[in-house]
Design goal:
- 2 copies of one chain form a homodimer.
- Chain A is an alpha/beta fold.
- Chain A contains 15 helices and 21 strands.
- Chain A has helices at about 5-10, 50-65, 70-85, 90-100, 105-125, 175-185, 195-215, 230-235, 250-260, 285-300, 320-335, 345-360, 385-390, 415-420, 440-450; strands spanning about 15, 20, 25-30, 40-45, 135, 150-155, 160, 190, 220-225, 245, 270, 280, 315-320, 365-370, 380-385, 405-410, 425-430, 450-455, 495-500, 525, 530.
- In chain A, helix 6 links the parallel strand 7 (about 160) and strand 8.
- Chain A is globular.
- Chains A and B meet through strand 5, strand 6, helix 15, strand 18 and strand 19 of A and strand 5, strand 6, helix 15, strand 18 and strand 19 of B.
- Strand 19 (about 495-500) of chain A pairs parallel with strand 18 (about 450-455) of chain B, so a sheet runs across the interface.
Chain lengths: ~525, ~525
C-alpha cells in the first residue's frame, strides 16, 4: 500500500464534508450479510446540518470547479482512479464483508470503476462534451444582420448522488454518476448506501485526496453516510442541488422524483429504478438450442445472486414442446444452483416475499426452486404462467429483485406481441433468434426499441459495457428520464446545459469559445466541424 | 393564391383530427383586440373526446413516422413551409385581425416560421440528430470480449404542442416546437391558442396538406382549438403523449408541469414561461452613451407592445448622475411612445394591473408613463427603485408582460452583484459595457451564465436568431428545463432518446446503424467520426 493509500485507507466512520471530518452523536453500523454480524466501526448519521454544510460548500465550489480546464479535471479523475486502485485488497475485503459479494466480482467491479473514471478523463480532455458551436456575425445580412453567436455546454450545478446497494463501487461513491458529474464540472454530494458505509468511506477518502492534491476547492466533493430516507430527501430538497443521480428501488426513485418536482425550483432526477428485462425466445432459437439457452439464462439469472438492474426477470416464448423443454432444462439448472449471499438481510427477505407473493397469484406455477439457502442467501426460482394470465394481472410484470424470473407462454406471435405491448419501460430487451426467426424479429425490434434503452440479440442483458454507444436507461418506470443513460460517455450530458454568448468581446468569452481556442477543441463553425488546431 | 392554397386556405372552424374535420356543439370566437369585435367564423371547442381521438391517431402514426427516412421528413417540412408561404396575404390579414400585430411584424414572423421549417429540414437531412455511434465488437478482448454496440437517437413519441399568444406563427401551430418535434420523428397534437384560432387553422391546414401529399399517416398531426385550460390538461394527461412543448405564462407552464409529473408515467415538459431579462448598464457605457442606450432600450421595450419572452424588463445600474441621465432620457422616450394594440383584452388588463401593482409597492416610483392608449393598447411604463428595496421585495422581480420595466439603482458593484444573485433563472442577461468596463464584466459573465441561457453584450435581448448556436432557454423559472432550448437546431434534442443495439444481425438493425449506411450519415466509430460515404 502506498503512502497515500495508508493515509486515505482508514475507516473512521466520519462524514466527509469538504475537507472536514464530521462525527455525530447518533451512529449506525454495517452488517456482514453472510453472518448477520455487526461490523466495526460505527458511522456518523448525517442529518440536515451535514446536508446544509455539504451543499453550502458544493455551491461555493461550483464557480471555480465548473470552469476548470479539461486537463485539470481529467487529471483529477485519473488521480481518483489511481487512488481507488491503490486501496488494494483492503477495499475489496471490506466490500466483501459488507456486501457478501465474492472477491472476483468486486475486483472486476473495481476495475470497471477505475476504467470508468479514466474513460471520463479521456472524454473531458476531448472536449466533445462542450459541443462548441459558433455562428459568426453576418453584419450585412438582409433584412437584419446576424449577431455573433457562440454556444457551449456548461455544468448544471451541484449534483446529489445516491450510492446503490448492488454495485458498491461502480454505482456508488465514485461510480458512474459521480464520474460523469465531476467530468461535467459539477460538485458532488454523495449519500452513501448504508449497507456498505466502510467501502464508501474508503472510496470517498481516495476521491477527496485526489481533489485536494490538485488544489481544487474542498467543496467539490462531500460524502454523507446515513441510514435514513430523510437524509436523501433533505439532500434533494436543498435549493443548491441542481440535479440528482440515483440507482435503486422504484419506491425510492419515485420518492425522490416527488421531492424534486415539489421544490420551488424543480430539478432533473436521473433515477434508474427497476426492470424485468424481457427476453424473447423465438421459435427457431428454441428449437435449435433450447438447452444451451436454458443454461445461459440461469447463469445470467443467478449471477451476483440476481441483484442486477439488467437481470432477466421475464422470459416470453410460444407455448409448445420446445418451450417446455427449455423450461425443463432451465428448471434443472435452477435446482442445481447454489444460492449466493444476498446484499442485505432486508433485500433477501424482500426477495423471498416477492417470489412467494408472485407464486401465490392465480395461474402462476413454480417451475423450479434452487437448492436450500446458504448463509444470507435465498434460493433461485423460475415461475411460469401463460400470456392470458400475465395480461390480466399487472402484478406479474413486477420486478423480483434477486435470482427469480417468470416464464410466460404465449399462444402465438400475436399474443407474444400483446405481452410486449403491455410492458412498461425497460432497461433492456433481448431476442434469442436464429436465421429463420429474422422475419419475426424484424417486426419486434422497433416495438422493443419503444420499450427499452438497449436491445440485444443472442446474449444476456447482465453485463453492461462502459462505452460510448452504451445506453443504460430506458422509458419510465425503468428510469425517470428516457432521454439519458447512466452508463457510458453519453451520461455526462445529464449534467450539462447549453449557454449562448451573443456579441461578447473576445476577452469576456469563456475559453472554449474564444477565437484563440486555447482548449484546442473541435468546434462547429457556421455548420461545419473544424478540427482542433494543429490536428 | 395557388390551387393548394385555395383548398387549404379556408377557415371553417373545425378541429383537424388527422384527416377528419370535427365540429362541436359548443363553439367559441376570436376577437379583434383593437376593436373588441367578434370575428367570424365560430370555432369548435375540442374536449376530451377530441383529445382521445387525436392521441389515438398520433400513437398509431408513431411507429411509421418515427422511422421515415430523413429525405421524406425533410421534404414534408419543406412542403409545409411552402404551403404556409403560399397562404399569402390572407394568412397575414387574419393574423392581424386576431392579434393586433402589424403587417410587417407578421410578415417577418412568417418568414421566420418558414425559414425555421427549412432549417429543420436541413438538419433532418444532415442526420446529425441521429448521433450514430458504433463501438465494434472486440471478440478477443481480455478479460471479456466486447459486444458490438450501436447507438442512435430516436423519436420520443407523440408530442403535445401549445400555441403561444405572442407569436401566432413562429411559436404556434407550425412553430419551433412543432418543427423540431416533426423533425425528430414525433407526431404532434397542437392545442391552438384561443386568441388566434383562424390563423392557427390556416397553418394547420397547410401543414396537414403537406403531410397528406407525402402519403404519411394522417395521425402525424392534429389541431385542437379550444379556449379552456382543461383541454390542455387533458392533452398532457393522455398516456400516449410523451413530451410537451409550451410557451406561455408561468402559471400555465407550472400547471402543465404538475399534470405531467402527476401522471402514472411522468413525461418531460418543455415550458418556456417568463423572464425579466436583466440588463446591466455598466459605468463606462452609461457615461459614454447613456442617451443612445436609453433610446435603444425603449425601442426594445416597446417593440411588439413589449409582448416578448425576451423583453428587457429589468435594468440595473450604479446610482449616480449617469444613471439619472439615462433614466431621464429613457423616460422621455417612454413618454413619446405610442401604445400598440396588445394581443388580447385580457393581456392588456393584466398588464395594466401588473404595472399598477408594481408601482404601488413601497419604494417604487413611476419614472415615466407612455402616452394615452390607442384602441386595445396600454401605455408603456418605466418604474424605478433602489437595490435595497428590490432585494427586500421578491415581487419586484416579477414579469410585467408588456412594455414595462423597472430600473434598479445599486449603491455599488457589490450591491449590483447581490441583485443578480437574487434573481431566478432568465432567458437572457445583457451587459452594456465599454472597454473600460471589461474588468467589471469579467466577473459578471460567469455569474450571468448561471442565471440565463443567453448572455448578450451591447445589444438588446428581443430578436432571437434561429441558428445552431442559439439558446432560447434558461434555468427555472424562465423555463421548466434548463437543459434545452426552444429555438435553434438544438431544440430537436428535446424530442429524442438514445437506444443501443447490441449484437444485432445486420438485417435487424435500423437503417442509420447498418453497415451499408444507406442514410449516408457521419458516424462515430470506435471514438472517431467517420464522414459520410463518398463525402
Amino acid at each position: 500500500m502506498s503512502k497515500q493509500a495508508a493515509e486515505t485507507g482508514a475507516i473512521r466512520g466520519s462524514a466527509l464534508i469538504g475537507a472536514a471530518e464530521v462525527t455525530t452523536e447518533e451512529t449506525f453500523q454495517a452488517f456482514d450479510p453472510a453472518t448477520g454480524a455487526a461490523l466495526e466501526p460505527r458511522f456518523a448519521v448525517a442529518g440536515t446540518r451535514e446536508v446544509e454544510a455539504a451543499c453550502a460548500l458544493a455551491d461555493a465550489a461550483f464557480p471555480s470547479f465548473s470552469e476548470t480546464d479539461p486537463e485539470t479535471r481529467a487529471q483529477v479523475l485519473e488521480a481518483a482512479a489511481a487512488g481507488i486502485a491503490d486501496l488494494g485488497p483492503f477495499l475489496i475485503e471490506r466490500a466483501m464483508a459488507e456486501t457478501g459479494l465474492p472477491r472476483a466480482r468486486l475486483e472486476g467491479e473495481r476495475a470497471r470503476t477505475v476504467g470508468q473514471l479514466r474513460l471520463f478523463a479521456d472524454l473531458v480532455r476531448s472536449g466533445a462534451w462542450v459541443r462548441a458551436t459558433i455562428d459568426p456575425a453576418l453584419p450585412v445580412r438582409q433584412p437584419l444582420p446576424r449577431p455573433d453567436l457562440r454556444r457551449r455546454h456548461v455544468a448544471i450545478g451541484p449534483v446529489a448522488v445516491f450510492g446503490a446497494s448492488n454495485f458498491p463501487l461502480a454505482f456508488s461513491v465514485a461510480g458512474g454518476d459521480t464520474a460523469s458529474a465531476l467530468a461535467a464540472g459539477c460538485p458532488v454530494v454523495v449519500k452513501g448506501h448504508p449497507a456498505h458505509p466502510g467501502t464508501g468511506e474508503l472510496v470517498a477518502r481516495a476521491l477527496r485526496a485526489a481533489l485536494a492534491a490538485a488544489g481544487l476547492h474542498a467543496g467539490v466533493f462531500s460524502y454523507l453516510p446515513g441510514p435514513s430516507d430523510a437524509l436523501g430527501a433533505a439532500l434533494v430538497a436543498d435549493p443548491r442541488i441542481k440535479a440528482v443521480g440515483f440507482t435503486g428501488s422504484r419506491g425510492g426513485g419515485l420518492a425522490l422524483m416527488r421531492v424534486a418536482a415539489g421544490r420551488p425550483e424543480p430539478i432533473p432526477v436521473y433515477a434508474e429504478m427497476s426492470a424485468v428485462n424481457p427476453v424473447l425466445l423465438l421459435p427457431g432459437a428454441l428449437r435449435d438450442r433450447g438447452t444451451a439457452l436454458a443454461t445461459g439464462f440461469v447463469q445470467s439469472l443467478t449471477l451476483g445472486a440476481g441483484q442486477f438492474c439488467t437481470n432477466p426477470g421475464l422470459l416470453i416464448g410460444i407455448a409448445g414442446p420446445e418451450l417446455d423443454a427449455f423450461a425443463e432444462a432451465a428448471g434443472a439448472a435452477i435446482r442445481a444452483s447454489v444460492p449466493h449471499t444476498m446484499l442485505t438481510a432486508d433485500i433477501r427477505d424482500r426477495f423471498q416475499h416477492a417470489v412467494a407473493a408472485m407464486a401465490a397469484r392465480p395461474g402462476v406455477t413454480v417451475a423450479a426452486r434452487g437448492g436450500s439457502a446458504g448463509p444470507g442467501g435465498a434460493p433461485a426460482a423460475l415461475l411460469r404462467t401463460d400470456a392470458r394470465t400475465f395480461l390480466a394481472d399487472p402484478a406479474l410484470a413486477d420486478e423480483m429483485f434477486g435470482p427469480a424470473a417468470i416464464l410466460v407462454a404465449a399462444a402465438d406471435m400475436a399474443e407474444l406481441i400483446r405481452v410486449i405491448e403491455a410492458l412498461g419501460g425497460q432497461l433492456t430487451a433481448t431476442l434469442h433468434l436464429d436465421r429463420a426467426d429474422e422475419h419475426l424479429a424484424a417486426g419486434l425490434v422497433p416495438l422493443l426499441a419503444r420499450k427499452a434503452g438497449r436491445i440485444l440479440a443472442n446474449g444476456w442483458p447482465t453485463g453492461v459495457e462502459v462505452a460510448p454507444a452504451m445506453v443504460h436507461g430506458g422509458p419510465f418506470p425503468a428510469t425517470s428520464d428516457s432521454r439519458s443513460t447512466s452508463v457510458g460517455t453519453l451520461a455526462i450530458e445529464r449534467f450539462l446545459r447549453p449557454v449562448c454568448y451573443q456579441d461578447l468581446p473576445d476577452a469576456l468569452l469563456p475559453a472554449p469559445l474564444r477565437p484563440d481556442n486555447t482548449w484546442r477543441l473541435a468546434r462547429r463553425i457556421d455548420g461545419v466541424v473544424n478540427p482542433p488546431p494543429g490536428s
